[in-house]
């Protein structure tokens, strides 16, 4: 699903007008995408004049970058190699847990009767 980078949004409302399912609204002068309504057509991404709306691949890259930056910041505060290793292992465990939750949720969603 597309993601709006609020700092970049200039409130032009072009994405709001272009969205075929009215999944985009304005909140405090910034575009807001309702992911429950969005059909991931990409029209908002193409129309945005300041590239404030990211596509899936860019969101993944942004999240990975953010995770690594956060981990490095924590590692800088750590006192020794052993605690840094523990910190990395702990973060990996957390991410693996999130992955299991997501995979199980997707599996259950496939069994939903609509």
What can you tell me about this protein's structure?
- The protein is built from 4 helices and 4 strands, in the order E-H-E-E-H-E-H-H.
- By secondary structure, the chain is mainly α.
- The chain folds into 2 domains: 3-54, Alpha-Beta Plaits, CATH 3.30.70.20; 58-110, no CATH class.
- The strands form 2 sheets. It has a two-stranded antiparallel ribbon with strand order 1-4.
- Strand 2 (24-27) and strand 3 (30-33) form a beta hairpin.
- It is flat and about 55 Å long.
- The model has no long low-confidence stretch (mean pLDDT 94).
- It comes from Methanolobus zinderi.
What are the key terms here?
iron; flat; Alpha-Beta Plaits
**How many helical elements?**
4
User: Which range does the strand content fall in?
Assistant: 5-15%
Query: What's the story with the biggest beta sheet?
Result: 2 strands, antiparallel
- Which bin fits the share of residues in helices? 40-55%
| Cα-atom radius of gyration | 19 Å
Compute the separation of the termini in Å. Answer: 21 Å
The H-and-E topology, N to C, reads as EHEEHEHH
Compute the number of structural domains: 2
Total number of beta strands? 4
Q: How would you describe the shape?
A: flat
Structural class: mainly alpha
Oligomer: single chain
The chain-level mean pLDDT equals: 94
Strand order of the largest sheet: 1-4
Unreliable stretches: none
Organism: Methanolobus zinderi
InterPro entries: 4Fe4S_Fe-S-bd, 4Fe4S_Fe_S_CS, RnfB_subfamily
Keywords: 4Fe-4S, Iron, Iron-sulfur, Metal-binding
Protein name: 4Fe-4S binding protein
